[in-house]
Write a structure and sequence with these properties.
- The chain is an all-alpha fold.
- It has one domain: Heme Oxygenase, Chain A (Up-down Bundle).
- The protein starts with 10 loop residues before the first helix and ends with a helix.
Length: about 200
Amino acid sequence: MAYETHDKPQAIRWHLREATRVQHEALDAVASGFSLTDPAGYRHFLRAHARALPGLEAALTAAGIMELIPDWPQRSRCAALEADLALLGEDMPPAAPADLPPGPGAALGAAYVLEGSRFGNGMLLRQVRHGGDPRHNAATAYLSHQAAWPAFLEQLEAHLGDPSSWSQAASGARAAFRHFQTCMLTELAGEHAAHV
């Protein structure tokens, strides 16, 4: 698919989108293995995210993301994820440590993946609600966590205005996608093993 040419201030957004296309598509393919209309499938979906998100948020904190994105604490979704799992009688699974490339650009690239994932959450939320289970419908704080994409993009563009930093940002974004994919595959393997 060809993309339109965008003004320079938004160029980093489109660069990251294109630079991570393969990893994004691979993650989407793995994520399709979770049936969100099925109670067990939704629990496994949340567990997969609970394996990935804490490690990634911790890696971003260690990389100094709060100096780059001052409202980062409000963007964190770990507490929402833990609350959803608790409502479903599930404990948080062991968190997988995330390995991000060094540098502020890489941290911003990984943050781009987390913030961008909120767009798809609306569609995922509709799938969960379509399942009709009241308990699962109540356990949607993670999927309905408020997005602040425009404000994030402003900060991303302010920090990554120089195209020489884009390669580092793309490396961080690809690492974040791979981290989520690995955690989802781990959860799917456990789910399938439980049914064998």
